Amino acid sequence: MSDSSSETEDFGDSELGCKSQNGIKLFNKIQNKSRNRKANKKRAEARTQDGQAEAYARAEATDHRTGVFSAGAGAGVAVVNGDDRFLELKANADAEFGLGGAIAEAGVNGAAYRHQEKNGNSGLSLSLLEGSIGGGVGLGAGGAKAKVDAKVDVVHTRIKFDDDVAVDARLGLNASTGAELGPAGASVSFLGFGISVGRKTGFSFPFGEFSLNF
Fold first, then answer.
1. pLDDT tens per residue across span 119-172
2. Is residue 177 part of a domain?
3. CA distance readout (Å), 196 to 28, 98, 129, 142, 179
4. Of 91, 117, 132, 186, which is most buried with the most CB atoms under 10 A?
5. Residue pair 26/142 in contact by the 8 Å Cβ criterion
């Protein structure tokens, strides 16, 4: 493990169904920036590659020294050929506590095929035969969350314009159920039928989803 002064990486990943729309993490991030102190981070990471097969695992815990504490872990395996990934499986979880509240999220995602192209902070991804399940619970000044996402997609496309703006489109089966509420937006869904407004704005049905993230 090693010490670092940088802020913890956000292990939340929208592909895994565990990226928050409520404001808990946003409030905690503002808390960190307002006090501008060096974080104490402990991190462990392992990665191995045998031919085109790749596997990794990582974990970290951070005392931001601002009253915010966070931790995350992730692991994954895939067969890699340039920008193409086959038989990919990945999982991650994260939790944090601060003035914005406490929140814990986790998710698992797998895809038979995934193509990814990146250009700085922008990029494009196309996934075929993808399945994901994830969710989380959280409560505090930044909002509330109690949600489970469960999706099986024939095709999933994502266009990312920068760190904050992306468009998602899915065609498949969706049984997501739950709700989120906070300054960053709100969403509600039941067995795949849902609507969201705010940083993520879109709609979903049991057979697909379209959303704009910003």
1. 887 889 999 999 999 999 999 998 999 999 999 999 999 998 876 788 999 999
2. no
3. 22, 25, 25, 17, 9
4. 132
5. yes
In a domain? residue 204: no
Give a yes or no: residue 22 inside a domain: yes
Per 3-state DSSP, what percentage of the chain is helix, strand, and coil (rounded to 5)?
5, 70, 25
In a domain, residue 109? The reply is yes
- Cβ neighbours of residue 212 under 8 Å, at least 6 residues apart? 165, 166, 167, 168, 200, 201, 202
Count the Cβ atoms, other than its own, within 10 Å of residue 10. Answer: 14
pTM of the model: 0.80
Q: Quote the number of domains for the chain.
A: 1
Domain that holds residue 105: 2-162
Q: What is the DSSP letter of 128?
A: E
- Enclosing H/E stretch for 26: helix 24-35
What's the DSSP call for residue 164? S
